[in-house]
């Protein structure tokens, strides 16, 4: 990212792209596929969310255990529930992109 505003803007664009891709895959594809396989029952929805959150957390393993718990579990659970509540990918994509934007700005200012 460096110490330039241009670097920050580039990093934010990259963060938005990553957020969009992750939401399309984890919430859009994986959750839909699991719901179709496991059913729309309470148990099926619980397992769908649990598997999706676990895989999302493991996908953030490069952040270490704290990142997997924070980003993967808490963030993944929040985004999964948001997707189920709204029934559309728009809400989790925007929430994820905004979280990445805030994190990028904080890192830019802090370091």
What structural keywords apply?
single chain; 111 residues; 4 helices; mainly alpha; 86% helix
Describe the structure in your own words.
- This protein has 111 residues and is mostly helical.
- The mean pLDDT is 94.
- Helix 2 (42-58) packs antiparallel against helix 3 (64-86).
- The N and C termini lie close together (10 Å).
- It is 86% helix and 0% strand.
- The protein is built from four helices and no strands.
Rounded to an integer in angstroms, the radius of gyration calculated over CA atoms is 15 Å
Q: List the helices and strands in order.
A: HHHH
**How many distinct helices?**
4
Largest sheet report: none
Overall residue-averaged pLDDT value: 94
Q: Give the distance, in angstroms, between the N- and C-terminal Cα atoms.
A: 10 Å
Number of strands: 0
Low-confidence stretches: none
Helical residue percent band: over 70%
Structural class category: mainly alpha
Shape: elongated
The proportion of strand residues reads under 5%
Summarize the model shown.
The protein is an all-alpha fold and 111 residues long. It is built from four helices and no strands. It is elongated, with a radius of gyration of 15 Å.
Give the secondary structure arrangement, pairings included:
Elements: H1 5-38, H2 42-58, H3 64-86, H4 90-110
